[in-house]
User: What shape does this take?
Amino acid sequence: MFVRMLVGSAILVAMLGAVGGCSRGQVSAPAQGQAAYDALPVVTTEEQFQRQVLDSPKPVLVEFGTDWCHYCRDLAPTLGSLATEYQGRAVFVRVDGDRSGSLVHKYGVRGYPTVLVFRPGARPVTLVGVHDAQEYRQALENSAGSVETVRPPGKMAYVPTNDMKTPETLTKGNDMSQTATSERTVTMRGQPMELVGTQQKVGDKAPNFVVVDNDLKEVNFYDIPGKVFVLSSVPSLDTRVCDIETRRFNEEAAKLGADVKILTISMDLPFAQKRWCAAANIKNVQTLSDYRHASFGSAYGVMIKNLRLEARCVFVLDANRKITYIQLVPEISSEPNYDSVLDAVRNASL
Assistant: This one.
């Protein structure tokens, strides 16, 4: 019996080694892909882009991404593996969106990651979001025009800027692509803070966004049931004014009834929000984190550019998810006008 167990264990070890296991000295395929991705050249200026991309006699795959983009990290091993596969036949480069604003603007990038495949004399192939390796192969091998120039978007994080042109890639089936507006600011203890993202107006259809709940699950706003919504963005629940504001909305939510859903959104990490909710006994407000994709801050134009926090702002939406009220608090350290918000909620409920 003992001998039989030893033999069975040896067979199991051998099987694990043959099926995806890594023996000593071996590096997994994803790790190899990541290492190859990390070694790709990073372009930050238009001069570099001209020399390494536009003047190249070979096809060039360009990835626009950032260090904070979760989906860029997911895609990195795939692109690194492809770079190894196409070595000598194609060029792969990266553009850091946080350091290359002029290139992001010039090529209309509104979502990370965005991949453009260039070939001399042909329109670039554009793939927004995360796609499988075969689609990037197709783009590289057919970028002379035998495939669609624009692909439907995959998973992505939205660019937190307010001066980008809406690209062709996002106007196809993506409800966050709206016209950006001129510079807007709020103050923090009197110091001006620039806001970036798409400014919304009363009467606009509320754009969708993806955030993370307190259990680290992604939440699509359009999947949340409710007839009237209050979307309250705050810089951080661990600050005095945000604490007071969210407690007040929690109290008011109990009086407004089940048809009114109040969401408080910040860049706080989900576990910090969960801890705060437990300490404050918050039962009637749902706290959501925008830390992963900055999707709410970008879509609603409340991202503070240099801090990557969200300004204090309240949106009220009716049953058709049309924006009926907006209160952007001019000084971040001030509370909103609660009476005005509550009047707007009652009007939206009629």
About this structure: The longest strand covers residues 260-266.
